[in-house]
Amino acid sequence: MNNNIFPCLWYDGDAKESAEFYCKVFDGKITADTPVVMNIDVFGQKLMLLNGGPHFKKNASVSFMIICETEDEVQKYWDQLMDGGIALMEIGEYPWSKKYGWVRDRFGVTWQVYLGENDDVEQKIIPTLMFIHQNNGKAMKAMEFYTEIFPNSKIVSVLKYGEGVGNESHEVPENVQHAHFEIDGYSFFCMDNSYDHQFDFNEGISMVVMTGNQEETDHLWNSLISDGGRESMCGWLKDQFGMSWQIVPKRLIELMNDSNQEKAQKVVQTMMKMQKIVIKDLEEAYIS
């Protein structure tokens, strides 16, 4: 599994409290603890929790599927995530799983707790993208778009509503009920949904990609903003579907974490003025 790709969750001051909660629920550990950024490791996967302020709220357009091996495991996570949370789909038996529930926890993050029988997915927690509103019907296009951009990528499986179980009549048979794809070895699920939800993709949940050099940074940045995406600041962008990405050279993190605080601060100040991150300019700021 690729730990250079990981989700970033946006908070308004309660990232640390949330990090401690997830480490307790999933028996994880905190790997970075700063006022702005908390990193945690759960099941060998990285999650970044960002105290970014009140601007964005997390929502169910990106949820997290927890693949469980036993009904007891499903119940264990459900009970803990429901503490202060809200059930979006009550835990129970569904056509696609003997035991499943969808919960929004007290921090606004939504989890699908799922008994995955015979699932050969090694990744325990899988971001699940919901294509709704103007994106409904575009899940297949998005998977093709992402898997063409990233190396070591593939569409693993696609179940369309016309082939699936439990299809309500209002879903288009050709649309995706459930699909699994990988970008650079990191698993995602996705689905189309025609329901008029009061939310959509936003910066509340983004995907971070750590890059090894400028060439890789340029390729991912230019590819993801193509066909109607748009650049934002500090390595952030939105793709054509409105999904947020952060394209972050590892060199930026090295320079920002330099023991010389003055040099590190110059790097941060330079980065704050950038859209796409340019490593050469950061290094020049560092030595200036």
TrEMBL record:
Pfam families: 3-dmu-9_3-mt. It comes from Chryseobacterium luquanense. It comes from the Bacteria. InterPro entries: Glyas_Bleomycin-R_OHBP_Dase, PhnB-like. This is VOC family protein. SUPFAM superfamilies: Glyoxalase/Bleomycin resistance protein/Dihydroxybiphenyl dioxygenase. Transmembrane segments: none annotated. Residues 4-113, 123-248 form the PhnB-like domain.
